[in-house]
Amino acid sequence: MMVGGKVKKPGKRGRKPAKIDLKAKLERSRQSARECRARKKLRYQYLEELVSSKERAICALREELEMYKQWCIAMDQGKIPSEIKALLTGDDQKTPQSTSTKTPKNGKYNSTGISQSKSS
């Protein structure tokens, strides 16, 4: 069959995929895989940092809890820890605190400097 001076073979309709298209598709696929691996690596780094910071926070809270337990034991024996005396007298400057002073979530303190929560 002749169309416009060119010989056409019957039965071969549509677009024939070229090797260039196949190579380009393969390269796009590789690039996409590289980007996916990079995103995955960043996501895992972020999650590892998050876990690490949470573990540090847990350790700090455990230390604080242990300190409060020791205070309770001391008070059960009739002794008042120097940190509590300092809080009650308002003499915070003389005694170095082992934990950092944090503002409570609601931002309210009572007259002794102890935070007040809405639930109590």
Automatic annotation (TrEMBL):
Gene3D superfamilies xref list: 1.20.5.170
Compositional bias of kind Polar residues: 108-120
Biased composition (Basic residues): 1-17
Gene Ontology molecular function: DNA binding; DNA-binding transcription factor activity
Similarity-based family: Belongs to the bZIP family. ATF subfamily.
Localization terms from the record: Nucleus
Organism: Electrophorus electricus (Electric eel)
Compositional bias ranges of the Low complexity kind: 95-104
Keywords: Activator, Differentiation, DNA-binding, Nucleus, Transcription, Transcription regulation
Protein name, entry field: cAMP-responsive element-binding protein-like 2
